[in-house]
Amino acid sequence: MAALILMTDDIARRQLRRERVFRDRANPLDYLQDVEVVERYRLPRPFIYQLMDVIAEDLKRTTQRSHPLPVSTQVLVTLRYLAKASFFSECGDLHGISRASVSRSIDAVTKSICSKIDNINFPTENEAIQIKQDFFKMAGFPNVLGAIDGTLISIIAPKENEPEFRNVVCKWPGSVHDSFMFSNSALKDHMEARDDGWLLGDSAYALKKYMMTPKLNPSTAAEQSFNAAHSRTRVVVERALGVCKSRFRCIHKSGGVLLFTPAKSVQIIMACLKLHNMCVQMRIPAEENEVLIMNQDDAHPQVPNAAVDQTGQAIRQRLIQRFN
Q: Which pLDDT belongs to residue 102?
């Protein structure tokens, strides 16, 4: 009888012993409705599956010993953070993983997106023809290859050069003037070399043969019409920034601050831009009631100490005459 009691107690102790359990991380895409997928990740199901296919090899682990996170979990956790700027704890609880796993997933996925997706580029000569036609239809402004603007994205101040990094646009501190950033970019060199059109910029940029800016203090009807056409055409870049920041709230001020080093913040920003371009290529519409309006708080004042560009002045004057 005593032996039987001991055996029963031993069985009870084993039954009470906590077994190592791995939570079931079912793929939410398998059971969420289409509208729920968009509400949670701001992107439709086909887009997410296509993204997984593109970056899957970078996210797979070669061993099952430590029960690595599935590719789907890593991607969905990252998209949730990018879309909502959620706390790591919220992202983790939603997908059944730890905060540390959320951090590792965001780093791995955004790094792979930056590496595998190459869709930030300037149009070819053949593409430029159609682009000029599309811009012309907006307000009759000819020969436009694109529009340019700057926007601020908040990050935590780094330990080095802290006063300079109030905000950052991928490379430069937020205190740097838009015109300076453009002058030190590959885009400026590209525009100087091709000489077959121009960009539209606001008064934060210097007037050049390849950069058309509005006429300050317009005094004639033609100058006013030129400025109006310039504004109606250039508004596409402000809308593009608004759509991008509405899709990925982590880079909008409503999402707070990117709590990463400058290098990782750049990685996350670039990933958002590449995902946005994927949405454009796949013709995924933005929710009109959620598109953020970019305000002038992001804008810099007129470019300081800009040297007069005679060629740019002559081109702009000829354009103004078209609006007589």
A: 95
